[in-house]
Design goal:
The complex is a heterodimer of chains A (about 400) and B (about 375).
Chain A (H helix, E strand, L loop, with lengths): L6 H14 L4 H8 L7 H12 L18 H13 L7 H14 L2 H12 L5 E4 L15 E5 L2 E8 L10 E7 L10 E7 L5 E7 L5 E14 L3 E2 L5 H13 L5 H17 L11 H27 L9 H23 L21 H12 L10 H13 L2
Parallel strand pairs in A: 1-4
Antiparallel strand pairs in A: 2-3, 3-7, 4-5, 5-8, 6-7
Helix pairs in contact in A: 1-4, 4-8, 5-6, 5-7, 8-9, 8-10, 9-10, 10-11, 10-12
Chain B lengths: L6 H17 L2 H9 L6 H9 L18 H14 L5 H15 L5 H6 L5 E4 L15 E3 L2 E10 L6 E8 L2 E8 L5 E7 L5 E11 L1 E3 L5 H36 L1 E2 L2 E2 L4 H29 L5 H26 L10 H12 L5 H10 L11
Parallel strand pairs in B: 1-4
Antiparallel strand pairs in B: 2-3, 3-7, 4-5, 5-8, 6-7, 9-10
Helix pairs in contact in B: 1-4, 4-7, 5-7, 7-8, 7-9, 7-10, 8-9, 9-10, 9-11
Classes of the chains: A alpha+beta (about 400), B alpha+beta (about 375).
């Protein structure tokens, strides 16, 4: 056992820091303040990362992968968080890119992978349905073969950032007569195809980041199916397994907690600052300790995933990581206290121009928004079931 | 960055596990801990023979020159087995004190071989981590005062005693059978032994020179981190026993594992175990690299202490009535974990310590 990173790993870290500095400071500042311009900042940041080989490091070497060790991937994620570089576009880089590289025809790989890496195509996810959340395999959207096409009918929901997307990857039922997992296929669908309608869903923070997507007789060329017909569940499991890796967001939470601590030190109370209040200081110290324990756990999981197999302990990272992300946003809102009440100008176009800091005005919407992290990517209750089955044998 | 045991360390773990599982099941633990000594000489001798007792001592002192990772590995196994042998109290702690204060001291070899038992007589009435008064005094070759809680002080041959001479706290070696030493042994709730020891002009020899408080603090850190490693073994067993029980116990015609209200909680226990294990490995590794300090000790005490409360209480609850019985092991583990939680600082004490310095760093970091 050793705590030090090796000289090679330290050199690698320095190299990553140099590359990440190429993402413009203003963009990173906007990200740090939670004020990114969508989709432009996201696209700009992803393209710089892609240009420098950092967007597809985890893909197969043939398609831009770097064959890094798990520790190297960990270092990249951590340095991105510390430098306030926006995360990669999950739908492209973590979800569909690796699926296409792993499962699809050579033709689809050549057609999509470079554009996916460079966000020339912005992807969105068509998995969940109104009646298929945690029980994803019960999805009802249908794809019926008609000559060289499949015709898709149904409804998807919780499609994050779909409003910026060009294409969607969709799970649809191609065989209703077999076990539910065995009759699902995955399709790549251009959103401009006739019959698709995207409707925004406003969330409890007032913002719009998810959508419903309706499919009515949407004709999709058969070659845009990923892999074999009825093999979609395998691909979905592969995709969801990848989604859970890095979902702990330790680096991001560390940065956020450091910011909370700084703000608490600047917040006056009757007797001094909030950071000097023993109860509040204990809350921060406790959260720091929890985060450190999670970080070491993540490093242990990272190291033991060296053989490339997904580790069931990644469910633990999702479970605990989401709890700590939520506690940190809750902490920020509580530091803001009464200043968290105003949230925008009267015309709702931006922050109110009053003597209340902008971070404070954003704190409760963010707190409310972050209730999602224990629900998406497999709710925490589902993660516990995975632990029960895969680790404890229950 | 690496948290895996080396091949040799895995062999060490397996060897110790082998020795202990041959001896201890819950019934044997109960019988042995009901004996006057409270632990087993046979097991002690086996541990001595295979070199476990000497692990933490340098080769010059008759030991194996191994480090904190090996010691922690052994303690985790003692924790798993609930083995009552006083490896930490009688060997590691006095050995660490003596070798720091008086390097090369002849007693070290006797401790390393298991022939002689030591104990650290430090805690006095009213002490509560991190405060220790050290009202015991040394003057003209003798020592006077009362140490209320001396872990395994009942069976010790030699006592390392903290005492004040003028303004200086020093460490002194006292023969436990010398004139002027009187011991009142006691049992602990976790079936271990200790003694209150009163020194009334007992002959004492100074170990080394200079202010010994820094040595005492360092050994406290070693003790805290080592006990947490022991706790990890106990926590592992609590979770194993609980999951096994859920799989086998039937009610309403089905096994308990079919009730999500129980399995969801079991998954949480796994989470608390792994978080505790991570922090323990972190602290042990820091100790091995010489970077462990009071902050890291507080971090591990806080995390392991909290995990221990949750896992301990839930393990009993999820067993139902059987978890309350003395013939079932889970309650004994919980008792042991509770004792560790009250030694050298409760989790809340350590949280308060961390909170007092939380403004000293910008961001929480590993190294």
């Amino acid at each position: 056992m050793q705590l030090e990173f090796s000289p090679e790993e330290q050199a690698f870290r320095a190299e990553i820091q140099t590359l990440l500095a190429k993402v413009p400071q203003e963009l990173r500042d906007r990200n740090a303040a939670g004020k990114m311009n969508y989709p432009d900042d996201m696209i700009a940041s992803c393209r710089i990362l892609n240009e420098n080989g950092l967007a597809t490091a985890h893909w197969p070497v043939e398609w831009g992968g770097k064959d890094w060790s798990p520790i190297q991937h960990h270092i990249l994620k951590e340095e991105m968080a510390l430098a306030h570089v926006p995360e990669l576009l999950a739908f492209n880089h973590s979800m569909i890119g690796p699926v296409i590289a792993q499962f699809s025809s050579q033709e689809l790989k050549e057609r999509f992978l470079a554009k996916t890496a460079n966000v020339d195509i912005w992807w969105c996810q068509g998995f969940s349905e109104p009646e298929a959340g945690s029980d994803l395999a019960s999805l009802k959207t249908k794809a019926v073969r008609d000559g060289d096409h499949y015709v898709i009918n149904g409804q998807k929901t919780w499609t994050t950032l779909g409003q910026y997307a060009d294409w969607i990857f969709v799970l649809a039922r191609t065989n209703p007569d077999v076990k539910k997992q065995a009759g699902i296929s995955m399709f790549l669908v251009e959103l401009s195809t006739p019959g698709i309608e995207m409707r925004p869903i406003q969330l409890i923070d007032g913002g719009v980041e998810v959508n419903e997507v309706f499919f009515e007789d949407v004709r999709v060329p058969a070659e845009q199916m990923v892999g074999e017909e009825n093999s979609g569940w395998t691909q979905a499991k592969f995709l969801l397994g990848n989604e859970r890796v890095g979902i702990a967001r330790v680096g991001e939470t560390k940065v956020k907690l450091a910011r909370a601590k700084k703000l608490a030190g600047e917040t006056r109370t009757a007797t001094g600052t909030l950071l000097e209040d023993p109860q509040f200081a204990a809350r921060i110290a406790s959260l720091e300790n929890d985060l450190l324990a999670l970080e070491v756990t993540q490093l242990r999981v990272v190291a033991s995933s060296a053989d490339g197999k997904p580790n069931p302990a990644s469910s633990l990272l999702k479970l605990r990581g989401s709890q700590l992300q939520q506690e940190t946003t809750e902490l920020l809102a509580d530091i803001a206290g009464p200043d968290s009440l105003p949230s925008s100008a009267i015309d709702a176009t931006g922050p109110a121009d009053i003597d209340v800091a902008e971070w404070a005005q954003r704190s409760v919407p963010q707190y409310l928004n972050f209730r999602k992290v224990s629900i998406y990517g497999g709710s925490n209750e589902v993660q516990r079931q995975i632990i029960d089955k895969a680790v404890l044998g229950l | 960055m690496d948290f895996e045991l080396s091949e040799e360390q895995v062999m060490l773990r397996d060897t110790v596990r082998d020795v202990l599982t041959k001896t201890y099941d819950v019934e044997t633990v109960r019988t042995v801990t009901d004996s006057e000594l409270g632990w087993k000489r046979d097991v002690w001798n086996s541990l001595a023979e295979i070199g476990i007792l000497g692990l933490s001592f340098s080769e010059e002192d008759g030991g194996a020159g191994a480090g904190p990772i090996e010691v922690a590995t052994v303690l985790t196994e003692l924790g798993r087995a609930l083995a009552p042998e006083p490896y930490l109290d009688s060997v590691v702690v006095p050995g660490a004190l003596i070798s720091a204060a008086a390097p090369g001291h002849e007693l070290l070899a006797a401790l390393a071989s298991g022939e002689t038992l030591g104990a650290f007589a430090h805690h006095e009435k009213g002490d509560r981590w991190p405060v220790s008064a050290v009202a015991t005094s040394f003057a003209e070759g003798t020592i006077s005062g009362t140490k209320t809680l001396v872990p395994h002080g009942d069976c010790a041959d030699h006592l390392v005693v903290s005492a004040r001479a003028g303004d200086e706290v020093g460490l002194y070696l006292v023969d436990a059978t010398a004139a002027g030493v009187s011991r009142t042994p006691y049992r602990t709730h976790d079936r271990r032994r200790g003694a209150q020891i009163t020194f009334d002009g007992a002959a004492a020899v100074r170990l080394g020179s200079g202010e010994a408080s820094p040595i005492i603090s360092d050994v406290e850190i070693i003790t805290q981190i080592s006990q947490c490693a022991e706790a990890i073994g106990a926590l592992e067993r609590c979770l194993e026993l609980t999951t096994e029980y859920l799989k086998t116990r039937k009610q309403f015609g089905v096994t308990l594992s079919t009730f999500q209200t129980l399995t969801q909680r079991a998954a949480d226990l796994y989470m608390w175990l792994e978080l505790a294990r991570s922090m323990s490995q972190y602290a042990v590794t820091a100790l091995a690299e010489g970077s462990a300090d009071a902050t890291i000790a507080s971090r591990v005490k806080l995390q392991v202490g909290r995990s221990a409360r949750i896992i301990g209480q839930e393990s009993i609850q999820m067993h139902g009535g059987i978890g309350m019985t003395a013939e079932y092991p889970v309650g004994h583990y919980v008792s042991r974990l509770t004792a560790i939680g009250h030694t050298l600082g409760h989790p809340d004490d350590h949280l308060a310590a961390l909170a007092r310095k939380v403004g000293d760093w910008e961001m929480v970091t590993i190294a």
